[in-house]
Amino acid sequence: MPLLRKAFRSTAVHTNASAPCGLLMRANQPSGASFRPDLRLGTVACRLSSSEAQTIPMNPEPGKNLLYLNYADVESAGLGMAEIIGALEGMFREKGEGRVEMPPKIGIHPMPDAFIHAMPAVITAQKAAGMKWVGGYPENSKRGLPYISGLLILNDHETGIPLAIMDCTWITAKRTGAATALAAKYLARPDSESVGILGCGVQGRSNLEALKVLFPLKKAYAYDTHPERAAAFAAETSKQYGIEVEPVQEARTAVVKSEMVVTAGPILRKPHATIQRGWLAAGAFASLVDFDSYWHPAALHEFDKFCTDDVPQLHHYRDIGYFQDIPAIHSDLGELVTGRKPGRQTPGERTAACNLGLALDDIAVAPLIYQRALDRGIGTWLRL
Predict the structure, then answer these.
(1) Handedness of CA 229, 77, 79, 352 (dihedral sign)
(2) pLDDT at position 305, please?
(3) Which helix (H) or strand (E) covers residue 371, if one does?
(4) pLDDT for the residue 62
């Protein structure tokens, strides 16, 4: 069976058998005209021999094929961080208005501090539905494997037919950073120029990238329990984002000197509670990507506003042993975006966003990746 790769809206496509797969031309396409590929209208077979027909009939039946996107495919779709932040803000507006559906995460925990979660969601306004199956294993770095890995299935909103299956690692990293930046838009001082990154892995990078989109950052402090990682992070991101990134030897330095703080270490049921009361400056904002793992309870109770992305899920986590000593919850992110609850009100407030990472984040972004992949002819078609 030939490899299935592209979908178009025509009934026939011409190809040169000597050209590489992907160099396909729509039949009768006017010069300069544009069109948008559509999975439902079928697929095109690539790797044809010269003896095969030059006109390839389309398969108009939906539900016969789905698009597979690996990590490189998802990344090469070229979705920018500003677009992802915008997608999340639109989604949280829908959430704040009560127009989404998302049950609490269904999870299993095969190893200590490890998880595998099923994360379904639907965003009706976007006509987006699907589920992410994602695992997080803190010990994977010792095996040369990523901490976070998994897959996302995107379904057709009207029929439930699977449209695509894609690697979720890139999406998880980018949407998590985007959620931090979106929360900071409502909770941080808009003139914040410095950020402390504690945990210099994938999430540290994506959070810095996202904050740089919305804030006039000039200086970042990078701390990691492995100093060589902080040094590599500083060298890489200072060039990438055009700001000064200083590796520091102590977590306290990264917190005390910063107007915004991101803790992005492994998620732990029992916090190591490194950050102490009095470290976070008045007026600072913190994003707790790793839940309360980095924070001593006394430091958490210094926050004037403690927010999350979903209150029922935070309560669920508390019921299974996380978040045993945190402040009262001020609001969720949907309430901030819709104005139902106030964000920052005074320059001196200490504010926090403990975003848990929602299926809604993923399902807001996945359709954009899917459509971009169709537009650019990215990915591999698989038969159902």
Answers:
(1) negative
(2) 98
(3) helix 359-376
(4) 65
Q: CA-CA distances (angstroms) from residue 226 to 96, 195, 208?
A: 40, 19, 19
Is pLDDT of 337 > 80? yes
Domain that holds residue 347: 177-357
- Tell me how far apart the alpha carbons of residues 76 and 361 are, in angstroms, rounded to a whole number: 20
pLDDT digits (tens, 9 = 90+) for 38-51: 333 333 333 323 33
Are 317 and 346 in contact, with CB atoms under 8 Å apart? no
The pLDDT of residue 191: 98
What is the rounded CA–CA span in Å between residue 200 and residue 247?
10
Opening angle at CA 241, ends 236 and 242, nearest 5: 100
pLDDT band at 235 (very low <50, low <70, confident <90, very high): very high
Q: Are 13 and 35 in contact (CB under 8 A)?
A: no
Q: Which amino acid, residue 193?
A: E
Residue with tokens 């979660």: 117
Helix (H, G, I), strand (E, B) or coil at 249: coil
Same domain, 35 and 182: no
For residue 35, tell me if it sits in a domain: yes
Classify residue 128: in a domain, yes or no: no
